[in-house]
Amino acid sequence: MNGKVALITGASSGIGAGIAERFAELGCRLALTGRDADRLLAVGKSCQDRGLSDSDVLLVVADMTIDADIDRIFNETVDRFGRLDILINNAGRPAKSRFCELDMEFFDAVMRLNLRSVIYLSKLAIPYLKESKGCVVNMSSVASKTTCDYNPTYTISKAALDQFTKSFAVEMGPFGVRVNSLNPGVILTPLYSLLGKSDEQVIEWSKSMHPIGRHGTVDEVVKATEYLVSDAARCVTGVLMSIDGGRFLM
Questions:
Q1: Phi/psi at 67 (nearest 5 deg)?
Q2: Is the pLDDT of residue 46 over 80?
Q3: DSSP state string for 113-182
Q4: Which residue out of 120, 128, 154, 192 is catalytically annotated?
Q5: Using CB atoms within 10 A of its CB, is residue 161 exposed (0-12), middle (13-18) or buried (19+)?
Q6: What is the reported pTM?
Protein backbone atom coordinates (compact mmCIF):
# COMPACT_ATOMS: atom_id res chain seq x y z
CA MET A 1 0.00 0.00 0.00
CA ASN A 2 2.88 2.38 0.67
CA GLY A 3 3.01 5.06 -2.03
CA LYS A 4 -0.09 3.87 -3.85
CA VAL A 5 -2.94 6.27 -4.60
CA ALA A 6 -6.51 5.61 -3.47
CA LEU A 7 -9.63 7.59 -4.33
CA ILE A 8 -12.35 7.16 -1.68
CA THR A 9 -15.86 8.58 -2.08
CA GLY A 10 -18.14 9.22 0.87
CA ALA A 11 -15.02 9.71 2.98
CA SER A 12 -16.28 12.36 5.39
CA SER A 13 -17.74 9.91 7.95
CA GLY A 14 -18.49 6.31 8.82
CA ILE A 15 -17.00 3.52 6.72
CA GLY A 16 -15.35 5.88 4.22
CA ALA A 17 -13.56 7.78 6.98
CA GLY A 18 -12.44 4.53 8.61
CA ILE A 19 -10.99 3.24 5.34
CA ALA A 20 -9.18 6.55 4.75
CA GLU A 21 -7.59 6.52 8.20
CA ARG A 22 -6.42 2.91 7.86
CA PHE A 23 -5.00 3.49 4.39
CA ALA A 24 -3.15 6.52 5.76
CA GLU A 25 -1.51 4.31 8.38
CA LEU A 26 -0.33 2.06 5.54
CA GLY A 27 1.27 4.97 3.68
CA CYS A 28 -1.31 5.20 0.89
CA ARG A 29 -1.74 8.63 -0.68
CA LEU A 30 -5.38 9.67 -0.62
CA ALA A 31 -7.97 11.58 -2.62
CA LEU A 32 -10.99 11.95 -0.36
CA THR A 33 -14.36 13.33 -1.30
CA GLY A 34 -17.58 14.11 0.54
CA ARG A 35 -20.28 16.77 0.73
CA ASP A 36 -19.62 18.02 4.26
CA ALA A 37 -16.57 20.29 4.15
CA ASP A 38 -15.99 20.43 7.91
CA ARG A 39 -16.18 16.69 8.42
CA LEU A 40 -14.02 16.03 5.37
CA LEU A 41 -11.40 18.44 6.69
CA ALA A 42 -11.43 16.60 10.03
CA VAL A 43 -10.86 13.24 8.30
CA GLY A 44 -8.04 14.75 6.26
CA LYS A 45 -6.35 16.01 9.43
CA SER A 46 -6.79 12.59 11.03
CA CYS A 47 -5.03 11.01 8.03
CA GLN A 48 -2.14 13.43 8.40
CA ASP A 49 -1.94 12.59 12.11
CA ARG A 50 -1.45 8.99 10.98
CA GLY A 51 1.68 9.81 9.02
CA LEU A 52 0.74 11.41 5.70
CA SER A 53 2.03 14.80 4.61
CA ASP A 54 -0.25 17.62 3.51
CA SER A 55 0.59 16.90 -0.14
CA ASP A 56 -0.36 13.23 0.32
CA VAL A 57 -4.00 14.08 1.10
CA LEU A 58 -6.32 15.69 -1.43
CA LEU A 59 -9.74 16.82 -0.17
CA VAL A 60 -12.50 17.49 -2.70
CA VAL A 61 -15.85 18.75 -1.47
CA ALA A 62 -18.33 17.56 -4.09
CA ASP A 63 -21.74 16.04 -4.79
CA MET A 64 -21.55 12.63 -6.43
CA THR A 65 -24.95 13.12 -8.07
CA ILE A 66 -23.54 15.90 -10.27
CA ASP A 67 -21.50 14.76 -13.29
CA ALA A 68 -19.41 17.94 -13.32
CA ASP A 69 -18.43 17.27 -9.68
CA ILE A 70 -17.43 13.70 -10.52
CA ASP A 71 -15.29 15.02 -13.38
CA ARG A 72 -13.68 17.49 -10.98
CA ILE A 73 -13.00 14.82 -8.36
CA PHE A 74 -11.27 12.59 -10.87
CA ASN A 75 -9.34 15.34 -12.64
CA GLU A 76 -8.04 16.81 -9.39
CA THR A 77 -6.94 13.33 -8.29
CA VAL A 78 -4.89 12.57 -11.37
CA ASP A 79 -3.58 16.15 -11.55
CA ARG A 80 -2.27 15.83 -8.00
CA PHE A 81 -0.93 12.29 -8.05
CA GLY A 82 -0.57 11.34 -11.72
CA ARG A 83 -1.90 7.85 -11.13
CA LEU A 84 -4.65 5.79 -9.50
CA ASP A 85 -4.20 2.35 -7.90
CA ILE A 86 -7.34 1.92 -5.80
CA LEU A 87 -10.92 3.15 -6.23
CA ILE A 88 -13.28 2.80 -3.26
CA ASN A 89 -16.85 3.59 -4.33
CA ASN A 90 -18.34 4.16 -0.89
CA ALA A 91 -20.75 7.08 -1.30
CA GLY A 92 -24.39 6.11 -0.98
CA ARG A 93 -27.64 6.87 0.78
CA PRO A 94 -30.56 5.01 2.38
CA ALA A 95 -33.97 5.23 0.79
CA LYS A 96 -36.89 4.67 3.12
CA SER A 97 -39.94 4.48 0.87
CA ARG A 98 -42.44 1.78 0.00
CA PHE A 99 -43.49 1.36 -3.63
CA CYS A 100 -47.03 2.53 -2.88
CA GLU A 101 -45.58 5.80 -1.57
CA LEU A 102 -42.76 6.11 -4.08
CA ASP A 103 -41.97 9.43 -5.67
CA MET A 104 -40.12 8.83 -8.92
CA GLU A 105 -37.87 11.86 -8.48
CA PHE A 106 -36.76 10.33 -5.18
CA PHE A 107 -36.18 6.98 -6.91
CA ASP A 108 -34.06 8.66 -9.59
CA ALA A 109 -32.01 10.51 -6.95
CA VAL A 110 -31.22 7.29 -5.09
CA MET A 111 -30.24 5.45 -8.25
CA ARG A 112 -28.13 8.39 -9.39
CA LEU A 113 -26.02 8.29 -6.23
CA ASN A 114 -25.99 4.58 -5.36
CA LEU A 115 -25.47 3.29 -8.90
CA ARG A 116 -24.94 5.83 -11.68
CA SER A 117 -22.21 7.79 -9.89
CA VAL A 118 -20.29 4.58 -9.24
CA ILE A 119 -20.45 3.54 -12.88
CA TYR A 120 -19.47 6.98 -14.14
CA LEU A 121 -16.49 7.41 -11.80
CA SER A 122 -15.33 3.86 -12.51
CA LYS A 123 -15.51 4.54 -16.24
CA LEU A 124 -13.30 7.61 -15.85
CA ALA A 125 -10.79 5.55 -13.86
CA ILE A 126 -10.39 2.73 -16.39
CA PRO A 127 -7.25 3.98 -18.21
CA TYR A 128 -5.42 4.65 -14.95
CA LEU A 129 -6.48 1.36 -13.35
CA LYS A 130 -5.29 -0.53 -16.42
CA GLU A 131 -1.92 1.20 -16.18
CA SER A 132 -1.48 0.41 -12.48
CA LYS A 133 -3.25 -2.97 -12.61
CA GLY A 134 -5.29 -1.58 -9.78
CA CYS A 135 -8.47 -2.57 -8.04
CA VAL A 136 -11.99 -1.36 -7.27
CA VAL A 137 -14.08 -2.01 -4.18
CA ASN A 138 -17.78 -1.12 -4.34
CA MET A 139 -19.59 -0.65 -1.04
CA SER A 140 -22.86 -2.52 -1.47
CA SER A 141 -25.08 -4.06 1.21
CA VAL A 142 -26.60 -7.31 2.38
CA ALA A 143 -29.83 -5.59 1.31
CA SER A 144 -28.88 -6.44 -2.28
CA LYS A 145 -29.49 -10.11 -1.47
CA THR A 146 -32.64 -9.74 0.62
CA THR A 147 -35.96 -7.90 0.51
CA CYS A 148 -37.09 -5.04 2.72
CA ASP A 149 -40.69 -3.89 2.76
CA TYR A 150 -39.87 -0.31 3.80
CA ASN A 151 -36.74 0.12 1.68
CA PRO A 152 -37.20 -1.45 -1.79
CA THR A 153 -35.52 1.38 -3.72
CA TYR A 154 -32.33 0.92 -1.71
CA THR A 155 -32.31 -2.85 -2.22
CA ILE A 156 -32.79 -2.42 -5.98
CA SER A 157 -29.93 0.08 -6.19
CA LYS A 158 -27.58 -2.26 -4.32
CA ALA A 159 -28.62 -5.33 -6.31
CA ALA A 160 -27.84 -3.40 -9.49
CA LEU A 161 -24.50 -2.34 -7.99
CA ASP A 162 -23.63 -5.99 -7.37
CA GLN A 163 -24.41 -6.81 -10.99
CA PHE A 164 -22.17 -3.96 -12.08
CA THR A 165 -19.39 -5.35 -9.86
CA LYS A 166 -19.60 -8.76 -11.55
CA SER A 167 -19.85 -7.39 -15.08
CA PHE A 168 -17.03 -4.89 -14.55
CA ALA A 169 -14.82 -7.62 -13.04
CA VAL A 170 -15.25 -9.75 -16.16
CA GLU A 171 -14.44 -6.82 -18.46
CA MET A 172 -11.42 -5.62 -16.50
CA GLY A 173 -9.92 -8.98 -15.54
CA PRO A 174 -7.86 -9.39 -18.74
CA PHE A 175 -6.12 -6.09 -17.91
CA GLY A 176 -5.12 -7.20 -14.43
CA VAL A 177 -7.73 -5.01 -12.72
CA ARG A 178 -9.76 -6.57 -9.91
CA VAL A 179 -13.29 -5.48 -8.97
CA ASN A 180 -15.08 -6.63 -5.83
CA SER A 181 -18.03 -5.71 -3.67
CA LEU A 182 -18.44 -5.58 0.10
CA ASN A 183 -21.94 -6.33 1.38
CA PRO A 184 -22.23 -5.31 5.03
CA GLY A 185 -25.15 -6.01 7.28
CA VAL A 186 -25.99 -3.44 9.93
CA ILE A 187 -22.93 -1.31 10.64
CA LEU A 188 -23.40 1.31 13.34
CA THR A 189 -22.70 4.59 11.51
CA PRO A 190 -24.45 8.00 11.28
CA LEU A 191 -26.29 6.68 8.20
CA TYR A 192 -29.06 5.20 10.36
CA SER A 193 -29.94 8.59 11.79
CA LEU A 194 -31.17 9.49 8.27
CA LEU A 195 -33.71 6.69 8.68
CA GLY A 196 -34.82 8.09 12.03
CA LYS A 197 -33.18 5.34 14.09
CA SER A 198 -31.16 5.98 17.25
CA ASP A 199 -28.01 3.99 18.04
CA GLU A 200 -29.90 2.18 20.79
CA GLN A 201 -32.66 1.13 18.37
CA VAL A 202 -30.11 -0.15 15.86
CA ILE A 203 -28.26 -2.14 18.53
CA GLU A 204 -31.45 -3.78 19.80
CA TRP A 205 -32.77 -4.51 16.31
CA SER A 206 -29.45 -6.09 15.36
CA LYS A 207 -29.65 -8.60 18.18
CA SER A 208 -32.61 -10.33 16.56
CA MET A 209 -31.70 -9.77 12.90
CA HIS A 210 -28.17 -11.24 12.94
CA PRO A 211 -27.46 -14.86 13.93
CA ILE A 212 -24.34 -13.72 15.81
CA GLY A 213 -26.56 -11.42 17.87
CA ARG A 214 -24.92 -8.08 17.14
CA HIS A 215 -24.29 -5.43 14.52
CA GLY A 216 -21.00 -5.12 12.65
CA THR A 217 -18.38 -2.44 13.17
CA VAL A 218 -16.66 0.01 10.86
CA ASP A 219 -13.32 -1.58 11.75
CA GLU A 220 -14.53 -4.97 10.50
CA VAL A 221 -15.48 -3.48 7.14
CA VAL A 222 -12.16 -1.61 6.99
CA LYS A 223 -10.20 -4.83 7.54
CA ALA A 224 -12.13 -6.56 4.74
CA THR A 225 -11.46 -3.62 2.43
CA GLU A 226 -7.76 -3.75 3.26
CA TYR A 227 -7.72 -7.43 2.34
CA LEU A 228 -9.47 -6.92 -0.99
CA VAL A 229 -7.04 -4.22 -2.14
CA SER A 230 -3.96 -6.13 -0.96
CA ASP A 231 -1.76 -8.61 -2.82
CA ALA A 232 -3.20 -11.30 -0.56
CA ALA A 233 -6.38 -11.04 -2.67
CA ARG A 234 -4.66 -10.97 -6.07
CA CYS A 235 -6.77 -13.95 -7.22
CA VAL A 236 -10.04 -12.48 -5.89
CA THR A 237 -12.31 -10.64 -8.31
CA GLY A 238 -16.05 -10.43 -8.95
CA VAL A 239 -16.73 -11.40 -5.35
CA LEU A 240 -19.70 -10.12 -3.32
CA MET A 241 -18.24 -10.43 0.17
CA SER A 242 -20.81 -10.41 2.98
CA ILE A 243 -19.86 -8.90 6.33
CA ASP A 244 -23.27 -9.30 7.84
CA GLY A 245 -23.11 -11.55 10.89
CA GLY A 246 -25.29 -14.04 9.02
CA ARG A 247 -28.01 -11.48 8.27
CA PHE A 248 -28.42 -12.87 4.74
CA LEU A 249 -29.40 -16.25 6.20
CA MET A 250 -32.32 -14.89 8.20
A1: -55, -40
A2: yes
A3: IIIIHHHHHHHHHHHHHHHHT-EEEEE--GGGGS--TT-HHHHHHHHHHHHHHHHHHHHHGGGT-EEEEE
A4: 154
A5: buried
A6: 0.92
50-68: burial string, b at 16+ Cβ within 10 Å, e else: eebeeebbbbbbbebbeee
- Is residue 236 a contact partner of residue 178, using CB atoms and an 8 Å limit? yes
* Pick from 218, 237, 66, 65: nearest CA to 137: 237
Q: Is the dihedral of CA 189, 191, 192, 198 positive or negative?
A: positive
Give the CA count within 13 Å in the CB-facing half-sphere of 220.
16
Question: How far is it, in rounded angstroms, from Cα 42 to Cα 19?
Answer: 14
| Planar angle of CA 153, 157, 158, nearest 5 degrees | 120
| Angle 226-231-234 from CA coordinates, rounded to 5° | 105
**Residue 78 forms beta bridges with which residues?**
none
Which residues fall within 8 angstroms of residue 78, CB to CB, at 6 or more apart?
84, 128
How far apart, in whole angstroms, are the C-alpha atoms of residue 169 and residue 139? 15
Tens of pLDDT along 75-132? Answer: 999 999 999 999 999 999 877 777 777 888 989 999 999 999 999 999 999 999 999 9
Q: Is 154 a catalytic residue?
A: yes
Question: Is the pLDDT at 205 greater than 90, yes or no?
Answer: no
